[in-house]
Amino acid sequence: MKETKDAILAVKNGIQFEFKAYKEDDVVAALRAMFNKKCAYCEFNYAAGGPEDIEHFRPKGGVIVNGKLAQPGYYWLAAAWSNLLPSCSDCNRKRTKEFVDRATGVSGKANLFPIAEESRRWRSHRSKNREEPLLLNPCDDDPEQHLEFLDKGLVRPALDAVGTPSRKGEASIEVYGLARKDLVEQREKKQTRVRAALQQASEIAAKAQATADPAMRSFLDKQVRTLMQEAQSHLDKTEPYLAAVRAVFREFGLHP
After folding, report:
1. Where do the H-state alpha helices sit in the chain?
2. Do residues 160 and 58 both lie within one domain?
3. HSE of 158 in the Cβ direction (CA atoms, 13 Å)?
4. What letters, b where the CB count within 10 A reaches 16 and e where it falls short, cover 141-166?
5. Are 161 and 203 in the same domain?
6. Are residues 174 and 188 both part of a single domain?
7. 6 pLDDT tier (thresholds 50, 70, 90)
8. Average pLDDT, stretch 118-145?
9. Residue 256 is assigned to a structural domain of this protein
10. Rounded to 5 degrees, what are φ and ψ at 104?
């Protein structure tokens, strides 16, 4: 792509370069469609209140290393599809937020891109990629291998077979701010609706099983189907907070 070539030349000559291609309308529309108008990190549906940020998974202009902004960033990936994700402003922009423990703190990806070993950071378009990102990329990772969604909208790093928390899970919760209070409350509301439908369906199914009246059983079975359809509607790919909803289905021994 021409912009990538121009950016490489600008960096070589020590010139500041303005990236534009990632903001084009067709790029924005394609990313919206790919992610069902949801934030790639927290699954918030921004469609009604956008606009979203078009986020560079690997920061284009500079990257925070040891607490300081180091330049250049991943300039050769500024227009690469593999490096573009739609993000809500709270996951992407570094600012003070309130968290579930009533503490306030700073979160937001901005120019952060932690990796497992700093000496292996990918620093040039001429070099090979040897770095291991510590942030989840939903295009490359299965978030449910690294994040565990709990009751009340809470989230924690998933544990491996020996009980060690996922490093990607830990870093992603911290950097994206996945435990911020407003987000947790929205996940909890979603989980509560799904859990109520599944609980009612379970109770009515037990009554249907116990009755000897065929007409009553047919009536109760219909109620169960209606409640299950309501719960399952929250598993649609366009719905927000899918990972948290799937966790509720697993509570009931159901495969989401």
Report:
1. 2-12, 25-34, 89-92, 167-176, 181-210, 214-233, 242-251
2. yes
3. 14
4. bebeebbbbeeebbbbbbeeeeeeeb
5. no
6. no
7. confident
8. 95
9. no
10. -110, 150
Regarding whether 143 and 100 lie in a shared domain, the answer is: yes
Integer Cα distance of 91 and 138 in angstroms = 14
**Looking at the DSSP assignment, which residues form a beta bridge with residue 148?**
156
Considering its fold, how many domains does the chain have in total?
A: 2
What is the rounded distance in angstroms from the CA atom of residue 15 to the CA atom of residue 12?
8
Residues of the domain holding 45 = 2-179
pTM: 0.92
Residue with tokens 């952060």: 112
Candidates 145, 140, 1, 125; CA nearest to 74 is: 125
> Helix (H, G, I), strand (E, B), or coil: what is residue 171?
helix
Verify that 129 and 29 share a domain, yes or no.
Answer: yes
C-alpha–C-alpha distance, residues 107 and 183, integer Å? 13
Q: Is the pLDDT of residue 2 over 90?
A: no
DSSP string, 124-152: -TTS-----B-S--TTTS-GGGTEEE-GG
Q: Which tens digit of pLDDT belongs to each residue from 51-96?
A: 789 999 999 999 999 999 999 999 999 999 999 999 999 999 999 9
